[in-house]
Description:
Number of helices: 7
Mean pLDDT: 94
CATH architecture: 3-Layer(aba) Sandwich
Radius of gyration: 17 Å
Shape: globular
Oligomer: single chain
Helix content: 25-40%
Distance between the termini: 48 Å
CATH superfamily: HUPs
Structural class: alpha/beta
Strand content: 5-15%
Amino acid sequence: xxxxxxxxxxxxxxxxxxxxxxxxxxxxxxxxxxxxxxxxxxxxxxxxxxxxxxxxxxxxxxxxxxxxxxxxxxxxxxxxxxxxxxxxxxxxxxxxxxxxxxxxxxxxxxxxxxxxxxxxxxxxxxxxxxxxxxxxxxxxxxxxxxxxxxxxxxxxxxxxxxxxxxxxxxxxxxxxxxxxxxxxxxxxxxxxxxxxxxxxxxxxxxxxxxxxxxxxxxxxxxxx
Length: 224
């Protein structure tokens, strides 16, 4: 019997590669997407399409209304998504997002009896978010084992972040090797309903640079 794992899936390059990676390593993939009140719903549509194409065991969408507290240009449409690079943590950082998503994944993992959770966090080509660092992943794993019945009763929950130390170009190369069709992914922070990208936000720039480094055309569709 395959080992069960909960995989966080957003519909982007990193989560697509993470699902394919988990499948290759023999896990039964229970995909979890979170509708957190994000700026656009295209990522959830692409996550659904991605999970269908990768034939995951099941795909669940959980609603968590982070738009009710705001604090990010991804959850508050009165704030503009930045289009210029910055050395500070940008307004696209969503307070506590990965902590909340991992907590939902942890709860589902306990229900499933799964010992493994995968997240496509990356600490190399990213926007400087504090909850994408290796230290954060390690700290959350310790919390997960301290705060759950499974951990207290002698089990061991593992938080996998297989892409954490990879450049975007390396992630894309791995995804291609695993058979990912990246035209079925969306990375833009302000994509339209059709999943067409702005081409100017930080996420668009990082994605485009990654494909350029690999030496292949970025299949992203743009609305500008």
